[in-house]
Amino acid sequence: MNDAHSFEIREGCTKNDRHFKGAIQRNSFTEAIEFYSFDGIAQFDFSFHLISETGPLIYMFFNLAHQSTLVLNCNYKNLAIPAFASVMMLNSTSDILSLHFESQSRYDFLIVKIQQDQLNVEQQALFRMLKAKNSINNILNPAMLLMPNLEICEIARKLKSIDKATCNHKFIAQGYCNILIGLKLNGLFKGSNKMTFLQPFEIQQLKVLSDEIIENPQHEYSIKELCKRTGLSVSKLQLGFKEMHHCTVAIFIRNQRLEKALDLLKNTNMNVSEIVYSIGLTNKSYFCRIFKKRFKCTPKLHQQKLKETLLLDV
């Protein structure tokens, strides 16, 4: 996967400051699935060519930048992928496929590359059927590009951010790839991509807010304050969280506090009462109740099991 200027992408994280100032990742998860991530600024105008030398490929492109459009050229026809949108397409060895970058423009996007002949017979037949039914210039249902999909965007962001250096994280990253493929296929079969009602700058506000809550779940958050900070109405804020995270703002905050508690139980010597206050709660019994509901175990029992496991490892 190189461009006309010998744009080299190695396994793992690499840089090519001659063309693209920023971070580039490449990871192979299986013989069928590879992942590429681009996050940086183009140094000048250039095209990045995707070449199929080993057989038919399935490409998925995810534009995560809220200010720049990703321009995809397929057989000399341009397709603009807007902010927070994605496209799935089939590519053969005879197709000419490239991405065009404009000088000093910032890009943030992912590519999932699937080797079609490495899929099982049922999966290959599925993609052949989809191409015959929905494809225009090898792009599966291009009409679905008009609006972003927050659910797909959130999974793509998780795939991008996870550390892929270790074996266990590679399994998780491969799982995210499969989820993205499944979500996109669901949209194609249902004839809908769950198009969001939010504008790109509003989606960016939701993304920033979600990251802050994940980083600092212990803070006291109010809907009124969050609406004021994001510029979103209460209904847009709640519906945006439901589309992106499948839950309300309050439940998202609660879940992140529980994840933080789980981390503190594992990595500190704090007792349950100390953990309750450190994650922004004041009622220990309430904490124990929601912890048990989420993880099917009381926090104290979970902490005891962790200690027993550590003793066995010594």
Whole-number tally of structural domains: 2
CATH topology of the largest domain: Jelly Rolls
Q: Helix coverage percent of residues?
A: 40-55%
Structural class: alpha+beta
Q: How many β-strand stretches? A: 12
**Rg:** 22 Å
Ranges where pLDDT stays below 50 over 5 or more residues in a row are 1-6
Beta fraction of the residues? 15-25%
Which word captures the global form? globular
Task: Give the name of the CATH superfamily of the largest domain.
Answer: Jelly Rolls
- Straight-line distance between termini: 47 Å
SSE arrangement:
Elements: E1 12-16, E2 20-28, E3 33-42, E4 46-50, E5 57-63, E6 70-74, E7 77-81, E8 86-91, E9 97-101, E10 106-115, H1 121-134, E11 135-136, E12 139-140, H2 150-161, H3 167-190, H4 200-215, H5 223-230, H6 234-245, H7 249-267, H8 272-278, H9 284-295, H10 299-313
Antiparallel strand pairs: 1-2, 2-3, 3-10, 4-9, 5-8, 5-10, 6-7, 6-9, 11-12
Helix pairs in contact: 2-3, 2-6
